[in-house]
Structure formats: C-alpha cells, structure tokens
Specification:
Distance between the termini: 60 Å
Order of helices and strands: HHEEEHEEEEEEE
Radius of gyration: 19 Å
Number of strands: 10
Number of helices: 3
Largest sheet: 4 strands, antiparallel
Strand content: 15-25%
Shape: globular
Length: 155
C-alpha cells in the first residue's frame, strides 16, 4: 500500500486530501451547531410567525410524527433542520414553555416548538422570505409556524 501511495501523482494526492478535508468540515458543521438558538416572532404575509436566529422564518413538516423528524438526506439539504447546542432561547413573542429539542439520528439537537421539529428552507434567500409556505415536498406539506405553535395553513 505504501509503495502504491508513493507512485500516485502528487496532484491526485492533493485532490484526495482536499476532498477529505471538505467532507470532514461538512460533517463537523452538521454535528456541531453554533450556540443556543434564539427564536423570535415577526410579521409575515401570513401573519405573525416564528423566526430563527438568522432572521429567517421557520417551518414545520407535515410528515413528522410528534417531535421525531422524518427529514434526512436530500430533504435536510433543501430543508435544513434548525440545530442548537444548548437549550433554545425565547426571544420577543416566543413562549418559552413551548420551546424544546429533539435528538436527530446523528446525535445533534434540533429545536422544537410546541413539539414540532423546526426547519429552514434553502429557497428563502433573505430574512422575511416565506417561499416554502404550502410546498409539498418529500411526501408532505411544509408550513410556516405561528407564535401559538400551530402551523399557518393558508397561502
């Protein structure tokens, strides 16, 4: 094996190292989310809704059962779960008693509100966008979440 590695072209070896580093970074970024997520309530075209720490609206997935997420793989790429590394914080308008977490298959903590796992939508390019509202993807519909903890089922 050592002899085989020595005969590999340096460029190929460098490329393998870059791929390994990028793959490792992506995995560690998913496994180690930032600080505690702070949620807040803001107005949208659908009424008052829950927003995540980046100022983007959060969604609930109709296929989830209780606090168990059913969005993994490609689904989680389009609809990234809202992760936290500590107990989530209640900002303006958020009911602290409705905040919680659920453990994902990879051991990370996903923020929940009123028992619903929370997600962002990759198609929302700026704070306040709600382009994921009512979309049917990955077997169920996606909804913006009201401050009450219920999905907003209009739009």
């Amino acid at each position: 094996m050592k002899d085989r590695l020595r005969t590999m072209r340096p460029g190929l070896l460098a490329m393998v190292a870059v791929v390994a580093a990028v793959t490792g970074l992506a995995a560690s970024a998913q496994a180690a989310p930032g600080a505690a997520a702070r949620l807040s309530v803001r107005s949208t075209e659908y009424g008052k809704a829950i927003f995540g720490p980046s100022g983007k609206v959060v969604y609930v997935f109709g296929a989830d059962r209780g606090s168990t997420s059913r969005c993994y793989g490609v689904c989680a790429t389009a609809w990234p779960p809202l992760l936290t590394s500590a107990k989530p914080l209640a900002g303006t308008g958020v009911q602290a008693k409705l905040l919680g977490t659920t453990k994902r298959k990879d051991g990370t903590l996903q923020v929940t509100y009123n028992g619903h796992p929370l997600y962002r939508y990759a198609g929302d390019s700026k704070p306040g966008d709600t382009t994921g509202q009512g979309l049917k993807q990955f077997g169920a519909e996606w909804y913006v979440l009201a401050a009450s903890g219920d999905k907003i089922d209009n739009g």
